[in-house]
Amino acid sequence: MTQPVSIPSLHIDVRSAQLEDVKPLLALEEKAFTGDRLSRRSFRRAITSLGSVLLVAVGTEGLLGYALLHLRQGTHLARLYSLAVAPEARGLGVAKTLIQACEKQAIKKGKNLLRLEVSDVNLNALSLYRKMGYQEFGHYDAYYEDQTDAIRMQKVLRYSADEQISRPLSWLAQGTPFTCGPASLQMALSALHPEYQATPNDELEIWREATTIFMTSGHGGCHPMGLALAAQKRGLSAEVWLSEEGPLFVDSVRNALKKEVIARVHSRFAEQCESSSLPVHYSVMPLEQLISAFDSGALAIILISTFRMDGKKSPHWVVMSGYNENCILVHDPDYEAKDDTQNPLDCQYVPIARSEFEKMSRFGQSRLQATLVLQT
């Protein structure tokens, strides 16, 4: 739908981009940027993808600018990936109009947090974002092709939330499809023990120590007690909260031998926790208690189901990295650089609505909930 906006001496229409816009978009990209340019394929993907919104600002003289918005599935996060204004249209309100249109689109898509990156030397853009209510929350050295730094900014949409509470937490991508638990533990170790060096070898070693050996298919996943024991071995104090006492991850296992092995591994982990005085609470950790532990300096590794994020019913470990009045923030180690719609920054401080988080943190037919609370 076209959104007409009147500005003195200039009329702007903002609409969704069409495939016939690709050629003028490429010409604008060439004029607007000296590096980090989007390709023809990127523009075509943005126009056809359900996970992106590409808006164009059009005047009587043609294309004035565009804004590309990426939507993080299963979360309330939107990201302003790219914004460009034709040199001849700068200073006429095109950028502000596009940003306002992006905010409306983000809200329409159910998102309530909009993030962006901007070069620290782009003073005009920084000034505009600040005037529009965006706040700085991160800085990245040599982020762009020309080696300039990036400032991360964000704005809460629709509601006025309390101040975000978060923890400086280094992010790590899991090195394999089955090591989300070890990568999450390495993030916690790096934050709580700054001298700890996260290495690919230790990631695999943690997996070897913590794995259930079997899953319904593929490689074994990490058992919460196994991860807690690995954390304790590396100098952290650990507690486990489990919603059930029996062997985990056996709901969909049909093979009798697999069931038996999973049960034996579970029993052995339980014995090791008892002998090492590692507390295991067979109950659900209330969200408010989780937040209280975070406020006291602890970090939590939480088992979630990824169904709301990628449509797959897989157990997955993430690290709680903050919260606000409406959301829980997590560091997600699952990152795969498939195309330019994905960025490691999108895996950090991912906002998940509290109501959604409580649904996501239940896995399988038994609605298993598992949380590890770690501290020094």
From TrEMBL:
Gene Ontology cellular-component annotations: ribosome
Transmembrane segments: 47-69
Residues annotated as domain N-acetyltransferase: 12-158
Gene3D superfamilies on file: 3.40.630.30, Cysteine proteinases
InterPro entries (UniProt xref): Acyl_CoA_acyltransferase, Bact_Acetyltransf, DUF3335, GNAT_dom
GO MF, one annotated term: acyltransferase activity, transferring groups other than amino-acyl groups
Record key words, sorted: Acyltransferase, Membrane, Ribonucleoprotein, Ribosomal protein, Transferase, Transmembrane, Transmembrane helix
Protein name stated in the entry: Ribosomal protein S18 acetylase RimI-like enzyme
Species of provenance: Marinomonas pollencensis
